[in-house]
Structure formats: structure tokens, C-alpha cells
User: Fold these one by one.
Assistant:
Number 1:
Amino acid sequence: MADIFYKSVIRIIKRIPSGRVATYGQIAAMAGNPRAARQVVRTLHTASDKERLPWHRVINGKGQISLRPGSGYEIQKAMLEAENIGFGINDTIDLDRFLWIPGERKKSRIKPDAGADEIIFRPTSRSDLNKIIRMERNEANRPYVRQWHREQHLNAIKSGNFAHMVIETPGNGRMIGYAILVGLENPDKSIEFKRLVINQKGRGFGRKVMRMMKTHVFEDIGAHRLWLEVKEGNERAFRLYQSEGFVVEGRHRESFLDRGRFSDLIVMSMLAKEYSNISRK
Ligand SMILES: CC(C)(COP(=O)(O)OP(=O)(O)OC[C@H]1O[C@@H](n2cnc3c(N)ncnc32)[C@H](O)[C@@H]1OP(=O)(O)O)[C@@H](O)C(=O)NCCC(=O)NCCS
């Protein structure tokens, strides 16, 4: 398990592009354990040379270099400046400008006042739960997604096997939905896309999330298989998944109960090799 986390951290750090920085906590969260920032620090110490990591692009959550003057501080700063990353007061980097957001469009940086159609993921916190539970119970979503108690969401947030994520438009910081992955510690490298709810429907957000999630699961986490269940008759979700390359595997008969009526769940999946074929096209 630790090995899966370690490998994800390595893979994620390798993907930080030139001219961008990422924070220890951000990398830990992307690798599936938001509380493991210290392990990211340790990985950078032990693996930077061996794995040829762009170690200098990783900084702390305040936007500052953590190494001490005389122990790497100056060289890290020089390497970042060479990539046109600016330093402000107290040698702080403006994270609004320079933070790496996976899935952002190359070249065109998200402007702080833009964001109407851009999305980012961040780990769900306890204070998000009221909103999430309201979304889950909402009539537009309730027939298609399982209804969890607060405790179930809390356990998922705390567990290293889950990634519980809020989906936001960065410009206005508005929560537009949430997503849950399960199986980050699965030795078979098979991850379930457990839940996806988009509150502002039909605006292309679902497709964007699906694409970012595939990149995250196959490239950051290094999964072998991504799978999900969709309720029969949920045409919007089914079409989205099918058009994003998911293949129907079969169905779990009458395994979803909503208001006294059982429905089938259609099982769909994508393998890493299929993801590579699609993204090469
Ligand atoms: C399913 C859901 C995640 C899709 O997100 P979305 O942002 O509404 O979807 P998008 O706008 O990205 O549209 C994606 C595709 O869905 C299909 N679609 C959109 N609206 C549709 C509709 N009214 N009827 C049928 N298909 C529709 C289209 O194929 C569309 O792609 P296109 O516009 O490129 O042709 C979202 O609607 C949702 O949260 N639904 C309720 C909860 C749910 O069903 N979750 C999934 C459980 S498996």
C-alpha cells in the first residue's frame, strides 16, 4: 500500500510542468492521502536523484521554499526563477498564478476572474459535507446515486482507500459537484468511480470531470482498470461514459433500490491500455 502511494507521488511529481509549482499537501492529496504531506517530503529526499524528479517545483502550502538557506534554498530559488516563476514579499510565490492545476489547458493559464467553465478538484473537507449531502438528496440526483449518511462520507474522507473530491470552478470558488473514487489501495489496481454528481447539468462539466479523472486515475495513480456502475435508464450518464470510451461489462441485476423499486446497474469499465489508445488519437 505504501508502495502504491510512493509510486503515485513519484508519477505526480514527474508531471509538474516547467513554470509551475505544486505543494506537498496537494501532491499527497492527489496520490490519495491528503494527510501524508510529510511522506511527500521524505520521498523527495530519497528519490529525487534516482528518479530524476523536478524536485525544485515542489514547495510548501504558503507558497514558500522549505529548504533552508545554505541547504538548497538558493539553488531551488534559482531553478524556479529560470522557469520564470516570480517571487514576491518574503520570497513567496503567488499560488494563484503559478500553482499547477492538473488538466488545465496548456499555455492558457486560468485567470483568477475567469473560471466559469474551468474546473478543479480539491479534497473534500468536513465543512463541505452539508452541501454535498444536500446535492445527493436533491431530486435531480437522488434517483441515480446511492444515499449515504454523513458518517459514510466522513469515513470516506478519512480513508486512504478513498479519494473524496469537491469539484469547483476556480474563478468564483463555487462547488459544482463532487466525486468519489474507491480502491486506491487495491493491490489489483482496479479503481471504482464510486460517485459523480454535477449540479449544473448539461454544460459540459461532466465530460471535463470524466477526462480529468481518467488522467488522474491512469497517469497519476497508475491504475490498471477504472470501473463504474450506472443505473439502467440514466441515459445522460450512460452516454457520457460510453462516449468517453467505457465498455459495458454486464449488469448487476436489481441491485439498486430507490423508493421501493429495484433497478439493474450496468457495469462499465476502461483498461489502462484502452485509455492509452484513446489519448493517443
Ligand atoms: C450524469 C452527470 C454526471 C453528467 O454531467 P453533465 O455535466 O450533466 O454532463 P455534460 O454536460 O458533460 O454532458 C455529457 C454528455 O451527456 C449526454 N447528455 C447531456 N444531456 C443529456 C440529456 N438531457 N439526455 C441524454 N443525454 C444527455 C450527452 O452525450 C453529453 O455529451 P455532449 O453534450 O458532448 O453530446 C450529471 O448530469 C449528474 O450529476 N447527473 C445526476 C447524478 C448522476 O446520474 N450521476 C452519475 C451516476 S452513474
Note: Residues 106-115 have pLDDT under 50 and may be disordered.
Number 2:
Amino acid sequence: MSKKFLKGKVALITGAGSGFGREMAVAFASQGASLVLNDINLEGINETRDIVLNSYNVDILLAEADISKEEQVDMMRKNVFQKFENVFLLVNNAGIRGGSSTLKTKTKDYERVMDVNVKGAWNVTKSFYRKMTKQKFSPVAGKIINITSCAGTECGLNPFIGMYSVSKAALIAFTKLWALELGPNNITVNAICPGIFLTPIYNNDPDFIREWIKLRNIKLPIDKIGEASQVADVALFLASPASDYITGQNIILDGGMTISINKL
Ligand SMILES: NC(=O)c1ccc[n+]([C@@H]2O[C@H](COP(=O)([O-])OP(=O)(O)OC[C@H]3O[C@@H](n4cnc5c(N)ncnc54)[C@H](O)[C@@H]3O)[C@@H](O)[C@H]2O)c1
């Protein structure tokens, strides 16, 4: 049997206490990764750790930190490198919903969404990339995966969640900029861009999601709500050697939603 491809490698996942973050933790552990589970919700990451350890015997560090706060992120980095020697995979997954029409959004709501979805990912990447560039893994020294959203793409921009759209468009831009900036250091940077998935961000409620889809007149060519494990499958591909030559891409995972506008 071939060796697990994440053995000896550490995966740091922000927002690992729930939804996609939890599924990705299980997926990376299945390939032997050690894990750093970050969240502001300690109970959530405790549960994720228990779920992972139920199936896989891997090293896990719980890192309770608010990624929007630079000093908490820097403290997290110190704790991580006291325990581990590398962060091969950095997954900027933590994010929050937010907003209404952009011009009616209050400053405090703008700041709340942008602080987590944009500044949070920037804080974490800024804090960890230097060490990642010095890692001796070959041919790729490290990989960054951002979890964006179709709401941040040209076809998916949505005035009903306007500030969320703005934040995810910025994260897509960061993905491409970091790919340019870190490519010479053998670090790949890609994004997974989900459509509509059943997770706590949608209250884990398929009826609520269906209502929202109807209200927004959204058409899904593959008429199914996505499952978090499908995001984890793509994350595992991006974490694997099979994707080593891919960088700067925003991989859309939406059942065809964004190509269907005005066509169905
Ligand atoms: N579920 C979907 O349909 C969908 C679609 C597109 C994009 N996304 C994106 O996927 C990512 C994960 O979302 P999810 O659906 O799993 O939602 P979720 O609410 O289940 O998970 C998000 C996690 O992030 C954590 N978090 C929030 N603020 C934080 C902070 N400041 N610091 C650290 N952790 C923080 C939360 O506590 C939570 O555990 C988000 O970025 C979201 O925008 C989700």
C-alpha cells in the first residue's frame, strides 16, 4: 500500500470547529496529517478532535484564537511551532455570513464581516508564510487553500448578502495575489469556491436552504444541496501531489449554479 501523502506534514485549519473545517480535518487525518484545529469556539474544536481521534491516531493541537485579532494569531503561531516543525497545509476556512445591500450596511457590520473573512485570512497567512517558505518539502514547500464562495464570483455576486460577496471577492483576489507572491518559494495557493452546502452557516437546515434558493431564483443544474464532505474531497486533492502544478485557481464547486444564470 502506498504511503499516506500527508504523513509528517501538519495541516492548520481555521474554523475547524464545525462544517467544512471539521470535514477537512477528518479528510487530512485520513492521509496521516497532524492537525492544528483553530476556532473561536473551543467546544467545537474539542468535538472535532474527538471525531478525528475516533478513526485516526494523529497528533492534534487545539488553537483557540480569533483570527481577526493579529495578536491572537501570532500567539497561535508561537504555540504551533512549539509543538510542530512545519505547517505544510494552511487552510483559511473560518468565515461568517453577513450583510444586506452594500450601501445600506452599517460600518460595524462591514467591519464584522471583513474582519473575519478578509483580514482574518490575511492575518493568518501573513503570520505563517515565512516559516512555510523555509520548509524542505519538495517539490512543493507548502500549500495554502482559501475557502471562498460563489457569492464572490462575477456570476454569483449577490446584493442580498452584499458584504459577504465583497469579502469573498477579496479572498479570491488574495488567492491569486498570494499565488503570484509565493510561487517563487514553491508554495501553491488555491481556493475552493462552494455554492450552497448544508452546514451550520445555513443552520444545517435543508428547508431553510431550499427556501433561500427559491426566493433568490437560483437554479441548480445538479439539483442537490452540496455536502461538506464534497468540499473536503476537493481539499484533499489540493493537498495531494496530484495538484502540485495548480496554483492561483478558484475551483468552483456549485452543482453548476454559476453557469446556469439565465440559461435554465
Ligand atoms: N456552507 C456553505 O454553503 C458555504 C458556501 C460558500 C462558502 N462557505 C464558506 O465556507 C467556510 C466554512 O463555512 P461553514 O459553512 O463550514 O460554516 P460554519 O459556520 O459551520 O463554520 C465556520 C467556523 O468558523 C468559526 N469562526 C467564525 N469566526 C471566527 C474567527 N474570528 N476566528 C476563528 N474561527 C472563527 C466558527 O466558530 C465556525 O466554527 C466559510 O468561510 C464560509 O463563508 C460556506
Note: The pocket of nicotinamide-adenine-dinucleotide is lined by residues 14-15, 17-21, 38-41, 44, 66-68, 93-96, 116, 120, 147, 149, 194, 196-197, 199-202 (CB under 6 Å).
